[in-house]
């Protein structure tokens, strides 16, 4: 049993908390919104009014918030909780943020003797509910070892991928691949529809060969019905590609298809579809070929 | 037992012949090159000197040649075998050619009372050897039914995807998706290397989540070792994207990422890497970011 | 004074005829549509009912039709005029067609002792009316010399760019550059509008520096008013990019931005905007960023 | 006569100083490097050892440095000169920086009663030497009026394009258009070379029609000789596209071709060609189609 402070029990965070509680951990939660605080209460976690209360007495603190600036604010901001953490506390940030921001959090934590991991997750709401998230962890090996039981309650694939920030680097790579796998399915659907192919049969045979992918399996229904309910929101995937574009530029590498994928996701947001599932790349591909 | 004439026992065709023989069919083979004729002899098929001899007395004729003009020449050309086929013979073209060319073959066959299927395959040399190809079949339902036993000797996923040409349409969609899935892995590798990530761990965690794909599983070693031995040659995938680009244009649809993938494959060929495996998209992605 | 047979007096062809007549040449015209025949009558050219009559007795035959198959049909088709031309006649094709098709026309003409030039034009309806077209001419130097007076009546820039087909090659290059120059203006407008810049002032300053272009000067009003009346139709520019994409593939070269431009023009056509001026690339760029 | 403090007399800044001196202004210069200080001495400007000395007593202060962080450091940093400027001084930043950074400089200046303009320039070293720069100015109308004489000594096109930051917004649009105009010329050259066209004749005819551009005129020799000596360095244009990509994302707009241009410039830098002229996009286009 570990005493855990959890900040940010939203769409993803709430089922993660539920799995931590189910695994026998004692979890104290804080959420900014009253609605989120209410919804997480049913998991059996105790719900508190401030981040300070959430982290008080915690051996492990987990943050799961929308973006890098949110993480920096709640950890190192003027009201951030870092100063009140005892040395030796383990801080695990599961948010998806820029590798550079993750390294800032690591550095700030190190400056206070707090152990730190960046541990972004993949697998969507379904993976969070089932406890089958993939978790890519950056930080020191001994801290990953210490976190393994807690992380194992939330995910089935927990991999130590490198030092501070490496978890976010791998999450970026993950988001490149997912966006691309979705987009070529989107274009394949346009091609198939234009030629009057039997779509279900086509997706069957694609799935059985080298074109098969988890994206095809999971988004098959969305592609066939053209209903794109989240899932993982376009706006969040777009945010991730903003992080990736900037990180690629900072690292001095050119990624031509990734750059184009970033524009397609940005267009979806600009067109008002930011709240759809990211498989809605197929909606944009269709609309690009249809009178407005 | 079916009497089969088989034209084109190359890298893919030879193991397809071997599986047909192993399934108890009587196969007569013709290949243009002496080397190919020699190599196919060890499968137990009888090898003949001309296409006319190969198709003589056959109930089913299978063609497996590099490109559309080859199919048109051997079937409907001045020395083509179509005029000598008895009405009712079943012609199965397993080559990957343009949907429009496939429809020409269907029409010519219909004009002579010959039954016809376009049945391109996916799965690479490994799939051909193991008899686990995905076969996407276009044509009449009763002809697909008649072909099912023969096709089942070569592939484990045999799907009727629509009328004449539909097999090639779905194969095109397959090649769009495969090229895209490979390219985003290529760009992800550039990103990961630029940030010094643990590449094996990174691919593990990508494979376990929404980024997972058959391409990732099968090309993992190639991506890690940067050795791109075929497999499926860049030059053939490039040829396929030429077919797709033209077919998309004929159908009046815009496919932005597909168009960019076609350029990247064309660049690989222009740079002298046409004989590498198509996972060599990762070689181009790396070279784009490295002094010449 | 030269006796000229002119086939295809449409939007571009009619003012070209008018300038030939004004320069003192004797022009006999044929058009497929009755409307076109009527409109060209007012130029002072004589209008005839068939291509055969138009070319009868002509020293120079000029063709100006929509696409390659049209040229091949009227020149070398079953009712084509090539067989009735006396050896030594000069055939000038001003249509924009594939380099490969142009070379077929040259070869067919050579086979009959007919001299031949491919001479596509640039400059739009305005250039045709003013007689200021750019004409890029492929063929033998002595034939270009012989054609110079006639071509000079229609255009102010007449350049011999190489052997048979070279005119079409250069026209392709021209259409790549024009599409690209228009598209980056389109994206610049999106960027400027998103930031609330003074658009007229911005275009002034762009025009005065390294960003200046003929496209900016001629399409300035269209960009500012978002009214895209032709001009040069999207559908024709899209057709040209189909030619270019295929010619690049045949030549084995990769052109990434050109490929993307081809998709954007195809999307405009698919969205029902094929009859707008090609500056409507700015319409698509805007709509990509605006709720449907 | 105006007393001017000038910070950053490099490749562009030095001839700008020379023109200010030639127009009768009294200029005090500071450069970080000893070499730059030495080179600017021959213009007749007085050269001083610190930014503080340069701005002392100045009515107008001009900054012309590589990037946004440089501007922020020398203006508002811990040793920045802003605190020592008397209220009413006119600060003109001619550097190319992010619109957002420009607005930070404006806000900081306003907080001290200092008047401020963002006034990036276009036209390259040649334009700086000849005093024919295009200058796009953001800020208050009365401040632009007050600056007009000074700016007119350096540029021939001085346009007030909007409020604080608008100069940088228009400069971004300028850099989008320039990169695109260069890239399509690069791809046109690949196409022309692949088809064996007469390159000089081709560029003549392109220049005479709708494909004409200032980029074509100025970079013609570079394109024909494949010698890409600056001019304007790839690394700087790449930096600008980093600014633009981020500004487009912040504004929520998708710019597909611009995003691809950003990758091509990044690739040039990654390949070691950052110090070439930006027309070296043609070098990359050629190398993409040639064995490494």
Automatic annotation (TrEMBL), chains A, B, C, D:
<feature type="domain" description="3-hydroxyisobutyrate dehydrogenase-like NAD-binding">
    <location>
        <begin position="165"/>
        <end position="284"/>
    </location>
</feature>
<dbReference type="InterPro" id="IPR013328">
    <property type="entry name" value="6PGD_dom2"/>
</dbReference>
<dbReference type="InterPro" id="IPR036291">
    <property type="entry name" value="NAD(P)-bd_dom_sf"/>
</dbReference>
<dbReference type="InterPro" id="IPR015815">
    <property type="entry name" value="HIBADH-related"/>
</dbReference>
<dbReference type="GO" id="GO:0016491">
    <property type="term" value="F:oxidoreductase activity"/>
</dbReference>
<protein>
    <submittedName>
        <fullName>NAD(P)-dependent oxidoreductase</fullName>
        <ecNumber>1.1.-.-</ecNumber>
    </submittedName>
</protein>
<dbReference type="InterPro" id="IPR006115">
    <property type="entry name" value="6PGDH_NADP-bd"/>
</dbReference>
<keyword id="KW-0560">Oxidoreductase</keyword>
<dbReference type="Pfam" id="PF03446">
    <property type="entry name" value="NAD_binding_2"/>
</dbReference>
<dbReference type="InterPro" id="IPR029154">
    <property type="entry name" value="HIBADH-like_NADP-bd"/>
</dbReference>
<dbReference type="InterPro" id="IPR008927">
    <property type="entry name" value="6-PGluconate_DH-like_C_sf"/>
</dbReference>
<comment type="similarity">
    <text>Belongs to the HIBADH-related family.</text>
</comment>
<keyword id="KW-0520">NAD</keyword>
<dbReference type="Pfam" id="PF14833">
    <property type="entry name" value="NAD_binding_11"/>
</dbReference>
<feature type="domain" description="6-phosphogluconate dehydrogenase NADP-binding">
    <location>
        <begin position="3"/>
        <end position="162"/>
    </location>
</feature>
């Amino acid at each position: 049993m570990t005493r855990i402070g959890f900040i940010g029990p939203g769409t993803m965070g709430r089922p993660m908390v539920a799995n931590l509680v189910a695994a026998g951990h004692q979890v104290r939660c804080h959420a900014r919104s009253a609605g989120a605080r209410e919804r997480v209460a049913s998991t059996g976690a105790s719900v508190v009014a401030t981040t300070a209360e959430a982290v008080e007495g915690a051996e492990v603190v987990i943050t799961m918030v929308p973006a890098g600036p949110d993480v920096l604010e709640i950890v190192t901001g003027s009201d951030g909780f870092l100063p009140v953490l005892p040395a030796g506390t383990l801080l695990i940030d599961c948010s998806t943020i820029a590798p550079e921001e993750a390294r800032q959090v690591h550095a700030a934590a190190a400056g206070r003797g707090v152990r730190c991991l960046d541990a972004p997750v993949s697998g969507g709401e379904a993976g969070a509910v089932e406890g089958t998230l993939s978790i890519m962890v950056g930080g020191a090996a001994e801290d990953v070892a210490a976190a393994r039981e807690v992380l194992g309650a939330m995910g089935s694939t927990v991999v130590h991928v490198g030092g501070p920030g490496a978890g976010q680097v791998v999450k970026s790579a993950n988001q490149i691949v997912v966006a691309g796998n979705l987009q070529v399915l989107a274009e394949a659907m346009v091609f198939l529809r234009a030629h009057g192919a039997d779509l279900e049969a086509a997706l069957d045979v694609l799935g059985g060969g080298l074109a098969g992918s988890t994206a095809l399996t999971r988004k098959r229904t969305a592609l066939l019905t053209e209903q794109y309910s989240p899932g993982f929101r376009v706006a969040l995937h777009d945010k991730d590609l903003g992080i990736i574009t900037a990180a690629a530029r900072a690292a001095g590498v050119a990624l031509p298809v990734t750059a184009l994928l970033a524009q397609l996701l940005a267009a979806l947001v600009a067109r008002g579809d930011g709240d759809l599932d990211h498989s809605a790349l197929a909606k944009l591909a269709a609309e690009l070929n249809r009178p407005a």
